[in-house]
Automatic annotation (TrEMBL):
Organism superkingdom: Bacteria
Name by which UniProt lists this protein: NADPH:quinone reductase
Known EC number: 1.6.5.5
Keyword Transport: no
Keywords from the named record: Oxidoreductase
Native source organism of the sequence: Fluviicola taffensis (strain DSM 16823 / NCIMB 13979 / RW262)
Coiled coil segments of this chain: none
GO molecular function, one term: quinone reductase (NADPH) activity
Residues covered by the Enoyl reductase (ER) domain: 10-304
Classification via SMART domains: PKS_ER
SUPFAM superfamilies: GroES-like (SSF50129), NAD(P)-binding Rossmann-fold domains (SSF51735)
Length: 309
C-alpha cells in the first residue's frame, strides 16, 4: 500500500512516499481504507521530535515516538474511512461501515491507504462516522474536539461561566468555542483581526484581535482562561482570571474516550458542532500541508485526502 513515512526527525522534507505491506486485521481489529487524515499540532511535534517550549514534554514525547529516530514511521493521528475487513471477534462494526477516529498509540498512523484500528481498547478510538459530515470533515474532528472537551472538563466549566479562549481560530480553538457554548458559557474569543468574523460565526459572544488589543488590560473578569495554542506565557493570561478562576492550556495531558465521540455525534446532529476546514491537500502533497500549518496562520483544520473514493 502507498504510505508517507518519516525515518528521521526534522522538517517536512523527512516525509517521504514508500510502499508498505497492507495490514491484516486481527481478532478485534478493523481494517479501514483511509479516506482522509489531517495535520494536527501533535503531528508536527511528532515529526520534529520536539514539544515546543518544554524539555520535559520533549523527553516524554521521545519516549513515546522513539529516542533517536521514529519507531512509528507513519504519521496521521486521526482518520476517516470505510471498513474493508474485520477480525473474527469484532462485534460493533461491519464491512462497509463509514468510520472515523484516532491512531494514538498504534504502530501505524493514517498517512497510508489502510490502517488497522482496534474496535476498543486503550490505544486509538473508532466510531461510526456522523452522516452529517463529509469524510474530510470527520477526519479533523477527533483530536481537536476531544482535546478541547478534555480541557473544558478539566476547567470544570459551568453554565454562565465567562471564558476567554486564546487562539480561538485554530483547530482546538474552534472546537472549544463551540463546545463551551454547549455548556452555556459566555465565550470571548481571541484571535487575529482577520479571523474575528470566523470566531463570531461559530458562537463567540465577543471576539478580540490579539494583534490590535492589549490583552492584559482586559482586566480580571474571566472564570476560565483556555490557551488553545500555547504560544503565550501563562503569566500574561492568569491575571485576567477572577479569584476563583481556572487556567487550562493545550500544553497538558489529555485523553481520548469513545463516549466523547458519541457526545459529538449528538451535537453534530443538532447542528451545534461543525469542523472548520481551511485547506485540503492530497496525500502526495503532505509535505506542503505541513509547511502551511507551520506558518501558524491556519483557520481551523487542514485535511490530507488519502483517497477520493
Amino acid at each position: 500500500m502507498k504510505a508517507i513515512v518519516y525515518r528521521n526527525y526534522g522538517t517536512p522534507d523527512v516525509l517521504q512516499p514508500e510502499e508498505l505491506p497492507k495490514p491484516i486485521p486481527q481478532g478485534k481489529e478493523l481494517l479501514v481504507r483511509v479516506r482522509a487524515s489531517s495535520v494536527t499540532a501533535g503531528t508536527i511535534w511528532m515529526r520534529r521530535g520536539v514539544f515546543p517550549g518544554s524539555k520535559l514534554f520533549t523527553i516524554l514525547l521521545r519516549l513515546f515516538t522513539g529516542i533517536t529516530k521514529p519507531k512509528r514511521p507513519v504519521l496521521g493521528l486521526e482518520f476517516s474511512g470505510i471498513v474493508e475487513a474485520i477480525g473474527n471477534h469484532v462485534t460493533q462494526f461491519q464491512v462497509g461501515d463509514e468510520v472515523y477516529g484516532t491512531t494514538t498509540g498504534l504502530k501505524q498512523g493514517a498517512y497510508a491507504e489502510y490502517v488497522c484500528i482496534p474496535e476498543s481498547g486503550k490505544q486509538g478510538v473508532v466510531a461510526h462516522k456522523p452522516k452529517e459530515l463529509t469524510f474530510e470533515e470527520a477526519a479533523t474532528l477527533p483530536i481537536g474536539a476531544m482535546t478541547a472537551l478534555n480541557l473544558l472538563l478539566k476547567a470544570k466549566i459551568e453554565k454562565s461561566d465567562k471564558i476567554l479562549i486564546y487562539g480561538a481560530s485554530g483547530s482546538v480553538g474552534t472546537y472549544a468555542v463551540q463546545l463551551a457554548n454547549q455548556f452555556g458559557a459566555q465565550v470571548t474569543a481571541v484571535c487575529s483581526n482577520a479571523n474575528l468574523d470566523l470566531a463570531k460565526s461559530i458562537g463567540a459572544y465577543e471576539a478580540i484581535a490579539y494583534d490590535r488589543t492589549d490583552i492584559p488590560r482586559l482586566g480580571a473578569r474571566f472564570d476560565i482562561i483556555f490557551d488553545a495554542v500555547g504560544k503565550i506565557p501563562a503569566s500574561q493570561l492568569k491575571p485576567l482570571l477572577v479569584k476563583t478562576g481556572r487556567y487550562v492550556s493545550i500544553k497538558s495531558m489529555t485523553s481520548e474516550k469513545k463516549h466523547y465521540l458519541d457526545l459529538f455525534q449528538q451535537y453534530i446532529s443538532e447542528g451545534n458542532l461543525k469542523p472548520v476546514i481551511d485547506r485540503t491537500y492530497p496525500l502526495d502533497q503532505v509535505r506542503e500541508a505541513h509547511e502551511y500549518v507551520e506558518l501558524g496562520h491556519k483557520k481551523g483544520n487542514v485535511v490530507v485526502v488519502v483517497a477520493d473514493k
